[in-house]
Amino acid sequence: MQRPIPTPTTRRCCSPQRAAIGITGTLPFTGTDQWTAFELTWLDSSGKPEVAIATFSVPVTSPAIVESKSVKLYLGAFAQTRFDNGEAVRATIARDLASATGGAVAVTLHAPAAYGALRIAELGGESLDALPVSIQRYHPMPDALAAGGATLTETLRTDLFHSLCPVTLQPDFASVAVAYRGPGIDRAGLLRYLVSFRNHPGFHEHCVERIFVDMMERCRCEMLSVHARFTRRGGVDINPFRTSATGLTPPYVRTARQ
């Protein structure tokens, strides 16, 4: 007899977390949370195991986000569940995640024959990580941000981002890229700001939204995109993307640490 698949539980409503950083009413950004599930398996109608890598995209307008541990337990229950085909698996995941988040979640299954197309690459942009900076605080310090001078269009990135899970206080590692147009951002100050999250307890999505809000306010960006690729835990990674540009979507980039 098959075990029932548990429904993924809602982690929390987005509104209180956004209100804490001054976001109320209309969102100042668009974007998605891109998830990758590397350990998805199920049984076909004959009981033979099937495997796939699943990617799903949760729109930023969803009223709630889900607990990553809940998603891991949810997907783990597929291991002894029979499905007629992969499309039935994909449709089930899309339906259940949409129910949990309140948004239209797009789900894609990548079969083993397609794994070669999921190449490892790094986020675009110029790395800040070799800059000689002195850092004394490890909680978000937006006062480190500054910009001025001629208008620039550039992408800057760091592989040094580190925050803490607010539930378990376990470390979360990420590569973060910021693409902007506006007065030139002080690079040393930007690196100090991003590294200052090191002891900050915050969910991935909320860290990225805080970066977006702080940079828009302090750096007076005409356009800004923030893209973070977090390392996986339990076979699942979460990769938030927030942008002020219309119709812009992030490329699929799996970094070496993912």
SSE inventory with pairings:
Elements: E1 10-13, H1 14-19, E2 30-43, E3 49-59, E4 64-66, H2 68-76, H3 86-101, E5 106-110, E6 126-127, E7 147-164, E8 171-185, H4 187-195, H5 204-219, E9 223-230, E10 236-243
How would you describe the overall organization of this protein?
The longest helix has 16 residues, at 86-101. The two termini are 35 Å apart. The protein has two domains: 10-117, GTP cyclohydrolase I, C-terminal domain/NADPH-dependent 7-cyano-7-deazaguanine reductase, N-terminal domain (GTP Cyclohydrolase I, domain 2, 2-Layer Sandwich); 126-243, GTP cyclohydrolase I, C-terminal domain/NADPH-dependent 7-cyano-7-deazaguanine reductase, N-terminal domain (GTP Cyclohydrolase I, domain 2, 2-Layer Sandwich). It has an eight-stranded mixed beta sheet, with helices on one face. A two-stranded antiparallel ribbon has the order 1-4. The mean pLDDT is 93. With 258 residues, the protein is an alpha+beta fold. The protein has five helices and ten strands, in the order E-H-E-E-E-H-H-E-E-E-E-H-H-E-E. The protein is elongated, with a radius of gyration of 19 Å.
Key attributes of the depicted protein:
single chain; 258 residues; alpha+beta; GTP Cyclohydrolase I, domain 2; two-stranded antiparallel sheet; 5 helices; 22% helix; elongated
